[in-house]
Amino acid sequence: MGKSIVTGAAGFIGSHLTERLLDMGETVVGIDNFDPWYDPKSKESNIRFALANPDFSIIKEDVLSLDLGKVFNEGDVVYHLAARPGVQDSWNTGFSASVENNILATQQVFESALISGVRRVVFASSSSVYGESATEDTKSISPISPYGVSKAACEQLADVYRARGLDIMIMRYFTVYGPRQRPDMAMNRLFRATLPGTYRFPLRGNGSQRREFTFMKDVVTASIKAGSLDLQEISAPFDVGGGVSASLGEVMSIVEELVGAQLRIDQEPLAVGDPLITVASTDFTESVLDWKATTDLREGLAQHYDSFKERVSSNSGEIVEF
Ligand SMILES: NC(=O)c1ccc[n+]([C@@H]2O[C@H](COP(=O)([O-])OP(=O)(O)OC[C@H]3O[C@@H](n4cnc5c(N)ncnc54)[C@H](O)[C@@H]3O)[C@@H](O)[C@H]2O)c1
Predict the structure, then answer these.
(1) Domain extent at residue 15
(2) Which SS3 state, helix, strand or coil, does residue 80 take?
(3) Is any ligand 1 atom within 6 A of the Cβ of residue 34?
């Protein structure tokens, strides 16, 4: 049996995925360049549990410069999560990082995976490929941000390499939250805006925008099922959504309740590139992967807050800046 390879293993979702695979008894090789886009110290912290496991090793290199052919072997499963995420940073000159770390890096992963005879690639795509069509039952690929365009291009690359015989599963994650969430994401910023200090949450619009928030444990379960189940090749993508679409205003109320403090807010105009509403269509994912998101938003946010507090106190009260 081959090993599991996780690109982006030191990131938010990749580090949880790695730990779950290790818990299942897999041998895991992580690849991560510790991109300083956000503080690499938090990435070191993300993989500290995995590093204590002798079945884990990490290659601290860029997917684009590493000789992937020397890492990938026949029968391996590659979970490809390394990317430059984040919608707002993909505007203007930020798009070059999306092109490099998303499109070019993904093409290299698919190419090497094909040549090495890996068993399957599980690719972390995003609800951002849908743009405003994310509310519809029959969604279309119509991104409204450069980041969404980069993920849509990766999905097209997947079609190209699938036609050459590579087994690729596409996972479209919907707004993932939970312990270790990236510092640019809303929930982390919300918790931060309740702590003593001056940081204020930039509220874009009136808080009525809705997201299908998805707890990281549910994302990890769906991804591992896609990587490990004995399935015939599947080209249709899997929506991976938490089960309920909630408004940002609702999340803000839960955060205030959990913390027992009021948020400091700065009112800002709605951001371009962020759809007003996202709703996942998970019937296909549920039936094929025998999966369903099980974490309720309040419960997931409580776990997120516990780990946020722990991280801040173990960091002498310092919060990772973005
Ligand atoms: N977090 C979400 O809500 C969400 C939603 C949809 C899709 N996704 C996708 O899931 C994946 C993981 O997202 P995340 O939130 O954990 O992000 P993250 O930034 O925490 O993790 C990505 C990791 O990849 C590494 N990386 C980036 N470029 C690399 C390169 N060229 N070579 C090697 N390593 C590289 C980074 O150092 C980082 O540790 C990404 O592909 C992202 O686009 C995330």
Answers:
(1) 4-174+215-242+279-293
(2) strand
(3) yes
Largest CA distance in the chain: 55
**Residue 229 identity:** L
Tens of pLDDT along 268-299? 999 999 999 999 999 999 999 999 999 999 99
CB 38 within 8 A of CB 49: no
Sole residue written with tokens 């991280």: 311
Q: Is the CB of 62 under 6 A from ligand 1?
A: yes
Closest to 242 in 3D by CA, of 219, 276, 275: 219
| Residue range 135-161: mean pLDDT, rounded | 95
CA atoms within 13 A on the CB side of 207: 13
CATH for 161: 3.40.50.720
pTM for this model (two decimals): 0.97
Q: Where are the beta strands (DSSP E) in 231-283?
A: 238-240, 245-247, 265-268
128 CA → ligand 1 middle, Å: 14
Round to whole Å and give the CA distance between 209 and 61. 38
Side-chain-facing half-sphere of 197: CA atoms under 13 Å? 14
